[in-house]
Amino acid sequence: MALKVVVDMNVCQDHGQCVFAAPQVFQLDDDGRLVVLIEEPDESLRAAVEDAADVCPVQAISIKG
Amino acid sequence: MSRVLIAGAGMAALRTAEALRACGYSDEIVVVGDEKYPPYNRPPLSKEALAGEPTLEQLAFRQKASTEDVVWRLGETVVSADLAGRTVALASGEVLAWDALVAATGVRARILPIPGGDSVRRHVVRTLDDTLELRPLLTPGARVVILGAGFIGCEVAATAVRLGCEVTCVALDPLPMLRPLGPDVAAELLRRHEERGITFRLGVSVSAMAENGTTVELQLSDGSTVTADVIVEAVGSVCAVSWLDGNGLDLRDGVLVDSALRPLVNGSPVDGVAVVGDLARFPNPLFGTGEWRVEHWSLPSDTGRRAGAVLGARLVGEGYDEVVALPFEPIPSFWSDQFDVRLKSYGMPGLADPDGVRLLEGDLADECVIGYHRGSELMGVVGIGMVRLVNSYRDKVGLGKVESP
């Protein structure tokens, strides 16, 4: 199963810690809102995405696959 | 079969276990923790969870497949350790042997010694049980007195005001969050919080308290009194280190460790033992010469990963000296939500010169980024709002990084 990143936008508070961990996948837009750039990132980004989920202060990121 | 014993079952314990597995350690990991819950996220306890319906399901950290076989002994307490004999004793009397030991017992909420003060109306906010106990008492009109005006005190105060409580914040410091933020930022936050309805009684302490029916009368050091239906103490923490007594460690403020998080005995590191999370007083050359204990949310992950890598290399027998020699220079970060104010920080603002606090971006009365300098070096930044901008300063804090204007 392919890697899939799901952010619970009801929980996300736009801290942007995930952006430090996986800038290829997450970004804050000009208004400071979180944007998921790639919802199904390549397997090579697994470690970075796992790290992003770990460092989310509100634990809004889950990883499937 | 070797065994890693982790004393304490919070976030740092979880991250250490994950890191041990990530570096190939596949033998036993036993975690002993005095709370009955698996590792969960504490920051919401004074914010969202206190405002809503706190549940373990919302707060628990996700469990990774790699740590499914970790043995969680929850509701049990490690009461002593013998580092030379490689054992710990539990409160039950049971003795457990280990090949590597991780000290992850963290801190407890400090309780003030106040004459007449053993009221059942006194609360703290450190654990899920604390928040579950406090939540139903924060009803509209309840007179809530917060002791302490640090981050937790101000967060609880803001949450209680939002729930309709009448909130008074009593603190010895002349301004809220003064020590971490400095006088200008603290004065601005005082202004905002008073505007939102928090009453501050600053520069005073509680000299006595007396139960009076369903309320408590607090006698303050300036001779005045405050009446409380609920008291919340948020006056800092006490390190849970007494179980390490008798091993020659430096336990004056947490546990003194080297950059590989090994505790020091007479200046020499103890191999096979690591200290993580709130307890670790470690050197961080990024901020100069010295050792610091940091209770920010980012540190359990940073120290847990470091400890797991060091202990794992030793247990697996691969590249231990190389792993120990790697630099360990984490950038502390914290945030605090109080009303609509999002405070966010990177680095060690507390290390700034008294006159080294300068506005870097924006307007103090609105959204801004404040720089905390020692000489020309940027030791830390704090943002009020402006998350994207304050995040852009993360890699600029610390000695030898970008010099700030």
UniProtKB/TrEMBL annotation, chain A:
Matching PANTHER family: FERREDOXIN
Molecular-function GO term, any one: iron ion binding
Lineage, highest ranks first: unclassified sequences, metagenomes, ecological metagenomes
Keyword S-adenosyl-L-methionine attached: no
Name of this chain's protein: Unannotated protein
Pfam families the record matches: Fer4_15
Record bears the keyword Iron: yes
Keywords: Electron transport, Iron, Iron-sulfur, Metal-binding, Transport
Automatic annotation (TrEMBL), chain B:
Single Gene Ontology MF annotation: oxidoreductase activity, acting on NAD(P)H
Entry cofactors: FAD
Protein name: Unannotated protein
Organism: freshwater metagenome
Domain FAD/NAD(P)-binding, first and last residues per copy: 3-280
Pfam families the record matches: Pyr_redox_2
One Gene Ontology CC term in the entry: cytoplasm
PANTHER family: APOPTOSIS-INDUCING FACTOR 1 (PTHR43557), RIESKE DOMAIN-CONTAINING PROTEIN-RELATED (PTHR43557:SF2)
Record key words, sorted: FAD, Flavoprotein, Oxidoreductase
